[in-house]
Design goal:
Layout: E1 5-14, E2 18-21, H1 22-26, H2 33-40, E3 44-47, H3 54-69, E4 78-82, H4 93-100, E5 108-111, H5 117-130, E6 137-144, H6 154-157, E7 162-172, E8 177-184, E9 192-193, H7 202-206, E10 214-215, H8 217-239, E11 248-251, H9 256-265, H10 277-280, H11 287-297, E12 306-313, E13 317-324
Parallel strand pairs: 4-5, 4-6, 11-12
Antiparallel strand pairs: 1-7, 2-3, 6-7, 8-13, 9-10, 12-13
Helix pairs in contact: 3-4, 8-9
The structure holds oxa(dethia)-CoA.
Residues 31, 35, 39-40, 115, 154-155, 158, 192, 217-218, 220-221, 224, 254-255, 258, 282, 312-313 line the site of oxa(dethia)-CoA (UT7).
Amino acid sequence: MNLRYARIAGTGSYLPEQVLTNADLERRVETTDEWIRTRTGIERRHIAADDETASSLAEHAARRALKAAGATPADVDLIVVGTTTPDLVFPNTGTLLQQRLGIHGCPAFSVEAACSGFVFALSLADKYLRLGEARCALVVGSECLSRIVDWSDRGTCVLFGDGAGAFVLTPADEPGILATHLHSDGRYKDLLYFPWGVSCGFNELRGGARGGLRMLGNEVFRTAVRTLSRLVDETLAKNGIEHEQIDWLVPHQANLRIIQAAADKLRLPMEKVVITVQEHGNTSAASIPLAFDTAVRDGRIRRGQLLLLETFGGGFTWGSALIRY
Ligand code: UT7
């Protein structure tokens, strides 16, 4: 066995052109800009055009990440995409992305873990690199959540948006990705889910069923805060890291108040937390690589820094990654 580490060689992200502001939503449902901003921190979200899909958003982010890494699609030997809103049931979105990049033959697949999809995908790709089974992995989070939101439900439609983010991972003698910690618990399924799939509810959809993802926001909120707090403790303890050693917290961008609670738990000032939720709302699996790439490109995240990524989403699923950038 050839044990080594994976490092982030480059990052990229993409937001669709069309922007939907809180003021736009005021005209669609009974809500206010003030309510949305104070309860969530969100100011706008981006909506995929009709001809855009999870794989097309992923392609933009992936090409940008490859460019940043000084790599080309021909170098890629593994693709893992986290998505809850795949183009199709099959082929999987990883394979569709592979085709878009004009490469063939390397393993390419999708991971389905709702908002935690990117961290789950990262954890998997990290293991391929550590075992020497890949040398240039493309890890992507990409979502078109606007397609599964009920635009008449003010409790959910103000929260979500579309986008994609990507990392290129390459081997290194030193970490890199120090550790990932993943968890799932299906007992919470009914608190956040999309009610129609293929082997369940397909005929209702064919019959014209209408609606969108369902969420008991308040309970999700409370469980997210409690769970992320435990996750932070677990990640620091298992890796022998003290709170003050973390340079940046890069959290899943669902709600500013959840992010604040996690930062409090870490005793991290908000200046050390990457926050982009105001720009794109909750983009599920895309949110962490989107935030990460933003902070790399604007110079906040720098080489050598210690970063904590943490996420929580439907399932429930939750997870963290500790990274020396
Ligand atoms: O990606 C991971 C999964 N998702 C999340 O992490 C989301 C977790 N949950 C949340 O972010 C928050 O629970 C929400 C932002 C969804 C809601 O915030 P809240 O502070 O928990 O509000 P609430 O659900 O307790 O609702 C408070 C009030 C209710 O009215 P009443 O019953 O007090 O009269 C809602 O009907 O706010 C009302 N409300 C709204 N008002 C204006 C709910 N949505 C809206 C809205 N505009 N868009």
